[in-house]
Amino acid sequence: MISDNSIAQEIVQVELPQRKTSIASKKCWYKQLWFYVLLAMVVGVAVGHWYPAFGTDMQPLGVAFIKAIKMLIAPLIFFTVILGIAGMGDMAKVGRVALKTLVYFEVMTTIALVIGLVAVNYWQPGAGMNVDMATIDASSVKSVVSQTKELGTTQFLMNIIPNTVVGALSEGHILQVLFISVMFGFAMVALGDAGKPLIHIIELASKTVFGAVNIVMWAAPVGAFGAIAFTVGKYGAGSLMSLGKLVGYFYIVCIFFSVVVLGIVAKFSGYSIFKLIRYFREELVICLATTSSEVVLPRLLDKLEQLGCKKSVVGLVIPTGYSFNLDGTCLYLAFAAVFLAQATNTPLDLMQQIGLLGVLLLTSKGAAGVAGAAFVVLAATLSTVGSIPVTSVALILGIHRLLAEGLVPTNMIGNAVATIVVAKWEDSLDDEQLRRVLDAK
What we know:
Elements: H1 4-25, H2 33-50, H3 52-57, H4 59-88, H5 91-123, H6 142-147, H7 153-158, H8 165-171, H9 174-191, H10 196-217, H11 220-242, H12 244-268, H13 273-279, H14 281-290, H15 297-306, H16 311-324, H17 327-343, H18 350-363, H19 373-385, H20 400-425, H21 431-439
Helix pairs in contact: 2-11, 2-14, 4-8, 4-9, 4-10, 4-11, 4-16, 5-12, 5-16, 5-17, 5-18, 12-17, 12-20, 14-20, 15-16, 16-20, 17-18, 17-19, 17-20, 18-19
């Protein structure tokens, strides 16, 4: 292994000037990235509202930004996980961290599903809509419904194993990249001293990818403008007003989970959830604008290390969390599924909802690797349960992007909290640095 001193010296030489610039820029709020993203969002809303046709044409700007970030995620996860495992140097420790991580994920996603079910049953936003299934245009969701056949448990597990190593990296499936990264990481540990030169190369490659991410992130305001202008231009305020009760209640549930549930976890870990949200404000704004948490994954990895979490823990928890710890997605799936049952007058007793909860525990884990993510998984869940009409998902097709404004930031905050918790369990968290960074103005 490369000595810690040599790695530390390299990091100081490469990153220290950037950190000084970052600290200096915090004195001027109007020079920070989040300000430009917010400004772009405001302009995007105005353009989409008054010039809807032009706003709809701006969609490629948002899509291009997301694609530019996603092309860097696979190599970044690959390098980060390998370095994390190699940094631990102990396969038993890797297994222990992985086990604790998965247990935490399962507990938190279960809590999210239960909260979603309780909230939607209490408010009943779909009651009284009396939707006649014969009047629903099923053609709008035909392509989505056709994908549900591919989301069985066996197929999901088989899809974790890529056809080729290069294919996993090129296609960008997070679980497949994570799978081959763990294998290569263990192989690197087994090499011992002979693997030192390769570890050094991977370290440099990782820094290079992070540098490319920093370059792409400066296009975030352009991407945010395109995404927001398209959403407002295509769907308009009418979509929000027609199903405003569903959207409003769902936002409340997401805020409750993020502030109260994750806030309690944060409190026990020794910090304030509000300070953590402030620390990740730029990433949250970008998530809101693009309705994608993947676009901030590289920055999440970097900023969690700056918080005092060891690279080895960050490299394992975050990539895994993006597939198995989607708290916001679980809230969405539970809330939307029961809402559609209420809207179509489909009776669901307690036992049926418990069965729905069990199905969601499985289907929610496949959201990260599916094109269309939560919406496709929702259709797959209804197809599995059988009692709720699958084509009823067309009711929320127009507002899915609005609902994503709540679930995506919740996913991001949930994974940040999870990383700090696991790091603290493993004595891999610098508490003093955590407090210092979060308290910084």
